[in-house]
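Data card: per-record layout.
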Amino acid sequence: MSEPIIRTRGLTRRFGEFTAVDDLTIEVAPGSIFAFLGANGSGKSTTIRMLIGLLLPTAGTVEVDGIDVIRHPRRVRDRIGYMGQKVSLYQGLTLGENVEFYAGLYGLAGAELERRWGAMRERFELTEAERERVDDLPAGIRQRAGLALATLHEPRLLFLDEPTAGVDVESRGAFWELIQDEAAAGTTVFVTTHFMEEVDYCDWASFIDAGRLVANDTPEALRRRFSEGYRLAITTPPAARAAAAAALAAAGVAGRETAEGLAATVPALEPPLLDALERLAEAGAAVHVEQPPMGEVFRRLLAGEGAVP
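The structure for this 309-residue chain is written out next.
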């Protein structure tokens, strides 16, 4: 098993009498998309600042890509990319001029810069925007440009702090496709977001509240623990309902009769149930599955209905 690319132990940050991050212990697997979630003021941004070496912890340890961040913060920053809610593009300059500026920071020039930027320009659909001033670009294009610049130096680890705030739903979806492409290529992505539905793009999710870790698991496992479950609605003629109920029962699910057919709530979509639903659909039943929204999970967490031991 690969060593974690991020590992914290007892990470704590106090500002006077106020504790912003309290005894945080997490591990992030390399090549994963890791969602770090919490309400405003919960300690997310403070944690990121400690992870990237901009803020010294009060207590605890933190390693990023095998580097002790407390002892060697500058070495860490050479290996990461960062994009915040406000995309760091210099107003008054064209996108191309911004590329040249950021490339200079990373020591990129000549053929190597053209190779990297040429590939990104096409992949991020930025060719037409390259000669435009960044303050004239729509939010969705600025967002794509910000991600392109954050990955220009091919970092092993990418930090995204509320990267989709302020853009429309379509642009958010396209942006997440790019994030998933980065992870598929081996980049680890550490992301914070206010849009709970975006957690389903992620491999792992950690929730913090008042600086403390309250949940730490896969999105599917969190749904099992902190939601009522998946809601099933099966529309079928009265004559076929007994057979449909028997198919569900064989998969360990007790269906209840409704005006349209059958309904049930299950904690997870296990293979036997999926097979039964597929057979019902092939037989002509209309099968609807409603996934528990991650917002529901978050509300239950904040209500104190579960915590990490």
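Known properties of this structure: The mean pLDDT is 91. The radius of gyration is 23 Å.

See the next section for split statistics.
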